[in-house]
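1st attempt posting a full record on here, be nice pls
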Amino acid sequence: MLLISVLLFFSSILFSRADDVLVTIPNGKIKGRKEYSLRGISFFAFQQIPFAKPPVGNLRFQDPQPVENWKGTLDASKNKQILCFQQSNMYKIANMSAVEYEDCLYLNVYTPLNPSSNANLPVLFYIYGGGFVNGASDFDFFGPHYLMESGVIVVTANYRVGAFGFLSTGDTVLPGNYGLKDQLLALEWVKNNIRYFGGDPAKVTIFGQSAGAASVSFHLMSKKSVGLFRAAIAQSGSIISPWAYQRDYKQIAYDVASSLDRNFNRSSDSMQLLTFLRRASAADLNKAANDFKQNTGNEQIIQGFRFTPVVEPDHENAFITEMMYPAIEKGHMNRVPLMMGICSEEAIARAAVANFQSSVVSYENDLSRLVNKNMHLVDANEKKTAGEAIRKIYTNGLLQNDLGKAVRYFSDMSFNRAVIRHAEMQSNYSDVYFYQFSYHGPLGGNRPYLEGAYRVGHAEDNHYLWAYSNHTFLNKYSAEDITASNRFRTLFTNFAKYLNPTPKSEPLFENIIWPKVKPHDFQYLDINETLTIMRNPKGDVYPKWVDLYEKMAVKPFDTY
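the predicted structure (as tokens):
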């Protein structure tokens, strides 16, 4: 509880300012601060509120435990960075090691109204992405300024990533999914406490991007999450994304131990492994988990990230006990309204890599690398045949001679195919709204253009929802960018309020009403300079993928 003690100490020596605001929850008093949106609209920020005991010592590799009560007033008015241990410096922090902590389970609450107003506002609970090995909920990375203008409360929460959040041996000693259980405890905190901030616990919508979107859909699948939210939004990710499931988790757990100590006895049982890993310092454990190379990051996007959620053995606190694809197919889900989407070219960032063409050549030299493990093919000749069929989806020639088509392959393999399939299957059981974000503007970042590919890359849509560290300079962007941001934000907040992104015809949306996906009529919203209702996303290639999996893959599927 060291960080909590520090916050309480500074709270005791600081005088209250006019912009400070106090909230009392069952755990104790909390002090927040007043902030302002980009258009000068005030909101209130409460940062780094602990929702769990520090997951250190014997709580490392354990389910999170609810935080204990505190005395005095917790100072949640400071913009202090607290990150769980990361695999890489995704946010380009100058001295990242100074803000990495194992004691990292804190959340932030942002509300547009003074909590004393007794409002019952809808709540948007955000889960960050980062491949299950990076990510944080900090104000500088996910500023709520845009969303605060739409009459909703926003909650962002840290969860453990990498080995700390997802190491598993597949038994009850190290069952895994600690990061998902951190999210679960944060959602339970929201249910129990958001009313004190003016939020309605019965109107919670969870949303997330990339690994955060996969996390959202794991909550859709888990019985543990029933009753904690009434709607969900998944941006560029799903539980059936190929990168969201690691099949070799037990080997990886022992690889971490061997990376810590090359003399580690790999015949040790799970309890001995757990004891060994708990003895290591957090920094050493994180370094060991990051040092060994299972395969490259690009390969992990196709075949499965190193640390991911796993299917647990059946036990009292298990979060996931069923394989993902059959769960959606059979409707074993929390049947709440779902909004899902993709960016128009998720993998376009690959084109900016200097060795992109040579990496494509390496796939041409071994076409079996185009084949995902989720096809469950073992025979080398079958893999080669499948690889040839996959290449033919995009070109009759060589991918290295048409790099735009190569990028499209990576986009579809890593993101589009699974997200579209998820939406198709879930539309049998709940309302599903699907979008493609096609608007390309400076606010989203300058992405490379490659002939034959689309423009909007992975995570580019998030720049239209969240204010990053340069948010005070929004006025340098075009009116088209601002309109795109207003539209995207309002679609999300409408969904949180009304369970419908376009509950009525209005000029902001060009009077369009966004139709639901139906099992045999897949309509979606294309978000570009204008809004367009279209049919069958990625319709020139997606049906060919479905046909290939039906004819060549070995069922049952786990991911897609």
